[in-house]
Design goal:
- It is a single chain.
- By secondary structure, the chain is an alpha+beta fold.
- The chain has eleven helices and twelve strands.
- Strands 2-1-5-4-3 form a five-stranded antiparallel β-sheet. A five-stranded mixed β-sheet has the order 7-9-10-12-11, covered by helices on one side.
- The protein is rod-shaped.
Length: 449
């Protein structure tokens, strides 16, 4: 029985007593005793009803007390859980004004709880993200009429008091009343800066591992192709050496001096060809294993180039003319002699290899502004436009060079040697017109005198 029912019963009793009193005033004296008995009876019944009501109220009071005790215990458990949550936990109104905050929240923002309460949560957001944060908060309020809205997540940069900014993961949960109206927001914030840094390190390590595996596969493929191509390219000069040596062994006493010299030159040319192949393979393997070194020393460029041209013309057996010109403003250039030899010998060998017999190859060297400029120009078969962008890749050969011996390593080695000098190389070519290479190498400042 509630208080309204009790008040109604008391009012009914008053009405009945008043009615009996009114009746007694209008009756004769002989009926007074009967009326008084009826009144006592009504009062007795009323008292019985009041007793029942009193017992009912006692029971309800007990239940109410137990409920209050349960609510206090539940509130205490909630407060303990609220404080024990490892993440920063806020309760705000729909405008983001902080109403509750746990200890983790005060630690995260490095500020006391008394200062936090009543403050808008957005004052701790970095200024550059403040507008975006405010728009998100407005968006949450605008969605209040959608009962299915429960939780939103994003990341934000916060500015704790007297500390460096942090990256925080934000989770916002809607608080609704019994009518499903939005009445507040629960916020959970977690510092994810360290996890971000750890994730970045893991990604870097994973990427480095993938690159290492890719490099290992590439190196494995390179070795396989190198063995295949090298064995093929070595076979021809070795066969030439073998056949010329056998012929000289059995028939040199029957041959003229000129014929013997022809076979000796073939052996010498083949040996030089094999030597060049071995040098290319060595340079390539050193570059792949990181052992290719850059050791600049003072070089007389004109003498260096003339000596190299003499060797090349001997191996070419004067089948081409080489027009050499030089305009050097300095006597010595600080470059790596070994790498420079690789650059020039490969470029000039290609000029001779891909040019028609009897044609002239132009070669020039100039020095200016602490750098050397080398240029080779031939009138050979040229390089197709779609091959030019790939000519510096290992084993790549132009589509119009299939019938000409070669491993496809020379230009790759040239590019590596140029890069080690921190130089640059350019190429211009036209089919059946010729090719021009231009190499610019800056002098090294580490002069070995």
């Amino acid at each position: 029985m509630n208080l309204d029912d009790l008040a109604l019963q008391i009012q009914n009793m008053r009405n009945r007593v008043a009615f009996l009193q009114h009746q007694s005033e209008q009756q004769k004296a002989q009926a007074d005793i009967q009326l008084l008995a009826a009144v006592f009876k009504e009062v007795y019944l009323a008292l019985e009803e009041l007793q029942l009501v009193n017992e009912d109220l006692k029971q309800q009071n007990e239940e109410l007390h137990n409920t209050q005790q349960a609510l206090v215990a539940e509130s205490q458990r909630y407060q303990e859980l609220f404080e024990e949550v490892p993440d920063a936990y806020f309760v705000t109104d729909t405008k983001g004004i902080i109403q509750e905050a746990n200890s983790a929240a005060t630690n995260l923002l490095n500020i006391s709880k008394s200062f936090l309460l009543g403050k808008p949560i957005e004052i701790f957001v970095l200024e550059k993200e403040l507008i975006a944060f405010h728009l998100k908060l407005t968006y949450l309020r605008d969605r209040a009429q959608f009962p299915d809205w429960k939780m939103q997540e994003w990341e934000v940069n916060l500015r704790p008091r007297n500390k460096t900014p942090i990256i925080a993961a934000v989770k916002v949960v809607a608080i609704r009343n019994q009518y499903s109206n939005l009445v507040g927001l629960r916020w959970i914030l977690r510092d994810i800066g360290e996890s971000k840094r750890t994730q970045a390190k893991l990604q870097w390590a994973e990427q480095a591992m993938r690159q290492a595996l890719a490099k290992e596969r590439e190196f494995s493929e390179l070795k396989s192709r190198l063995l295949t191509v090298t064995s093929h390219e070595f076979r021809t000069p070795l066969a030439t050496i073998h056949s010329s040596a056998e012929l000289l062994e059995h028939y040199r006493h029957l041959w003229s001096e000129e014929r013997q010299q022809t076979h000796l030159r073939r052996i010498q040319t083949s040996v030089m060809h094999i030597t060049q192949l071995l040098d290319d393979v060595l340079v390539l393997s050193q570059d792949e294993t990181g052992k290719l070194e850059f050791n600049p020393t003072p070089i007389n460029l004109v003498e260096f180039c003339r000596d190299l041209l003499e060797e090349l013309q001997q191996s070419d057996r004067s089948q081409h003319a080489i027009a050499f010109s030089s305009e050097c403003q300095c006597t010595l250039a600080n470059l790596d002699a070994k790498l420079l030899r690789q650059i020039l010998s490969n470029l000039l060998s290609n000029c001779l290899k891909y040019s028609p017999l009897g044609s002239t190859v132009k070669f020039s060297v100039t020095t200016t502004n602490e750098q050397a400029i080398f240029q080779t120009q031939d009138s050979g078969i040229g390089i197709p436009p779609f091959d030019i962008e790939h000519i510096f890749e290992p084993f790549h050969r132009a589509s119009n060079a299939d019938n000409i011996p070669g491993m496809g390593l020379g230009m790759s080695i040239v590019k590596q040697a140029v890069d080690l000098h921190s130089g640059e190389i350019t190429v211009e070519s036209a089919i059946d017109v010729g090719t021009t290479f231009r190499v610019i190498l800056p002098f090294s400042i580490n002069l070995h005198l």
